[in-house]
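Lab notebook: predicted structure, single chain.

Context: the supervisor wants predicted structures on file for every construct in the current expression panel, including those that have not yet been purified. This is the next one on the list. No modifications to the sequence; it matches the entry in the shared construct table.
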Amino acid sequence: MSDPSLVQGVNRRRFLKAGYLGAVGMFLGSGKGLPLIPAAKANGDTGGHPEFFGPPVTCAVIGIGPRGREILERLSQIPGVTLAAACDHYGPALRRVTRDYPTVKTTEEYREILDDPDIQAVVVATPSHLHREIAVAALDAGKHVYCEAPLASSIEDARAIAQAAKKAEGRLIFQTGLQRRAEPQHLFVQTFVQTGSLGTQLTARSQAHRKESWRRVAPTNERERELNWRLRRESSSGLLGENGIHGMDVMRWFIGELPVSVTGFGSLRLWRDGREVEDTAQAVFEYPGGILHTVSCNLGNSYEGTFDTIYGSDSAILMRDTRAWMFREADAPLLGWEVYARQEHFMHDTGISLMADATQLADDGVDLASVELGAGNPLHAALADFIECVREDIAPHAGYQEGFEAAVMAVKANESVISGNRAHFAEADFDLS
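Prediction complete. Output recorded below exactly as produced.
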């Protein structure tokens, strides 16, 4: 896998690999210094380095719903990106693009983008069940592809996309929108997990709670049906697939193995408006050795929002947005650097603030106590990683393999919710041959 990404024009690859990753090993080995503390700003602050490295990358976005518009905005902020075109079959969406980005060409036919030899890369931001046709065609047309997660709403479609990307490997970059894998804070936390700071891994918990109906209104019945594809089982991987997939992927990444089974639960508790998809769902993934990961999603209550927590015999790590904290057990062996770390109180617990970039910030003379935490944006970091990978011909953090594995997990979890039965994973489920 590749090292961390180019964020807002700063070549973070050498710094993050040689800097904080090396620093972590030094700290854990010597017990001296300050190994902690974050998130590189990916929100428009170039850290005094407005330059970028390498030639511009010409991009197009296919699918201009709310997510597509956010992607356009983020791409427009990345140095070295030329926004060339945007595609959507809905006219008002294209008129909005023309208003906000007058130089961007708009079209209702995505093939016009694929036939344009000047466009190097495309971002596929259509509904999940429409990804396959566009992503495969884009790869066949010789375009680098960033495809939003989940890759697809079915394992069959996800496998077809991943196989096309695998076939193009070495010639084209394919990145899945598992954005937390490219976010500097999550990359930083993963180094702590790798070094064994948790002790024996025990269990994990992810949550995505947000009060929203998912239902969207439109001027015609046909348009309303298009917009509400998430509410139908034929086109949706459900609440776990659409919202829970990022937590699933983070813990699969941190645990370092594929799950052996998943048991899903779901019900319709609040939005009784004729939808087929549950508004409350949970899944329990079992990993080799008995590690359990619980994923909870709902559309009826937003308390505590979104977070991921992994628990070990020596410590637990909580990740919320672009911040993270480590909670040490009283009997955990001393690592040596705890006394230098920034600490914050949570109810009856005290968490050590884990900050990516702390070593570089300290070397630059920055007062760590004054650093604004959580300023990064995972989508921005992921798109910046994609652009750097295209420019430098290097592998992304979340390629076709990671995207396919996450899609399989999400679809199987949703199937378990629907059937009420435990689903088992076999090697063949993750096979791309």
